[in-house]
Amino acid sequence: MANSVRLFCFLFVVQLVTTFFPEARASEEHGGGYPLSESDLVRGLPGQPDVKFRHYAGYIRLREQDERALFYWFFEAQGGVSEKPLLLWLNGGPGCSSIAYGALQELGPFLVRNNHSKLVLNDYAWNKVANLLFLESPVGVGFSYTNRSSDLSKLGDRVTAQDSYAFLLKWFEKYPSFKSHDFYIAGESYAGHYVPQLAEVIYDRNVHAPKGSYINFKGIMIGNAVLNDETDQEGMVDFAWSHAVISDQLYRRVKRQCDFSSENQTTGCNNALSTMLQAYGDIDIYSIYSPVCTATLTKSSLHSSPRLVASPRAFSKHELWHRLPSGVDPCTEEYTTDYLRRKDVQEALHANITNLKYPYKPCSEVIAKWNDAPDSVLPVLRKLMKGGLRVWVFSGDTDGRVPVTSTRYSLNKMQLKEKAAWRAWFHNHQVAGWTVEYEGLTFATLRGAGHQAPVYVPQQALSLLTHFLSASTLPSSRF
């Protein structure tokens, strides 16, 4: 009788706890308490739809001696948390936020789609097939911070990769249940540098890593990615001409004046490139068939050219990344910025705990200098492929900034052995794009997608991810 009473009391307490503290019930359902960091659990996010999965946000301090920390937002998978892989998503820039773009405009479960306070549930969120982690990196991007202003002048590709690796080690300490999960990294744009370089650090460190620091790393997927300066620039010019953005005369002038294999370009080349970019002044270079947001434009700025650093090397990496696309509604970037600047939103996300001296911006304006960036990451891709990691590259085919021509030229430069010939791939009985399989690498296009492919073709992008994670061949027929 006494045992029965004790059992009844125990069950009553369990019911009480799981009724009034649903996160405890969620931990029980996920088995083993996935995940464990209740202090970062997001509660009461303004405008959030009701969901059954949990999400966490906060800071990871990189090293004990450092006064800097990176901000993250993590979403459990929608069902099967313990069985599904972990995917890290990175946006590029350099200096642009994976929270403001990837999480809230592209592939996260909650999307900003208007200037009201309500978030929209994404029917094609990537956490349907993976546990999804977004990171603002390096310091100075978004909510990620440093208390030493001198750090902002020391940033570059190398520091970004090292700090992102340090973040991952600390993140896995905070969420140890995910150490055994298959781990992948994906990203777009300048993440064509970030993703392979972080992957290389993980790959190298895993060789001698103790059990507690080993990352169960399986592969990378990058889209509309900066890969190789020479071919990126050549492909951008050819795309502009082949899509009727520039005239035959200007095309011939660029071809005559510019040698993209050279470190230095002539004044004639720089002038020709400036003229080419001016041709994009009235449209969205990142999605050439989409409307632009006129709400924030003045009459004079409507016809101004995109900002340009004259050097083609800088032109391939920097200024234009800060004029990013905004999705189906071309003003979404402004809505997202307003949302993330709200104090109640920041409090719910455990963000801006140091009260940054500058307003939140999707692309950082406080990074003082970018110190290093290799001309090409193709050697890194080769190294990862040789190491047996899964490597997929995709391209939205209406992007003029890192166009499909650039990506194809870059991959052709690798002279890879073809395993399966170029063909269409399908989703919902329609052509979703085209694909070719090489030994160690798969390339696919997303038909009708701009620079931020998941914004424009969300169903197809989710299908692509699903096939990447399962290492399965993209569908080759309508039925």
Could you describe the 3D structure shown?
It is a single chain. With 479 residues, the protein is α/β, with parallel strands linked by helices. It folds into two domains: 1-30; 37-243 and 325-479, Rossmann fold. 34% of the residues lie in helices and 16% in strands. The chain is built from 15 helices and 13 strands. It has helices at 2-20, 22-30, 99-106, 157-174, 191-208, 229-242, 248-257, 267-278, 312-315, 332-340, 343-348, 378-386, 404-413, 453-456, 458-470; strands at 55-61, 68-75, 86-90, 110-111, 120-121, 131-136, 145-146, 183-188, 217-223, 390-396, 418-427, 430-438, 441-446. Strands 1, 2, 3, 6, 7, 8, 9, 10, 11, 12 and 13 form an eleven-stranded mixed sheet that branches. A two-stranded antiparallel sheet has the order 4-5. Helix 6 (229-242) packs across helix 13 (404-413) and helix 7 (248-257) packs antiparallel against helix 8. The longest helix is centred in the N-terminal third of the chain and has 19 residues, at 2-20. It is globular and about 60 Å long. The termini are far apart. Residues 4-33 and 298-327 have low confidence and may be disordered.
Compile the SSE list and pairings.
Blueprint lengths: L1 H19 L1 H9 L24 E7 L6 E8 L10 E5 L8 H8 L3 E2 L8 E2 L9 E6 L8 E2 L10 H18 L8 E6 L2 H18 L8 E7 L5 H14 L5 H10 L9 H12 L33 H4 L16 H9 L2 H6 L29 H9 L3 E7 L7 H10 L4 E10 L2 E9 L2 E6 L6 H4 L1 H13 L9
Helix pairs in contact: 1-2, 3-10, 4-5, 5-12, 6-7, 6-13, 7-8
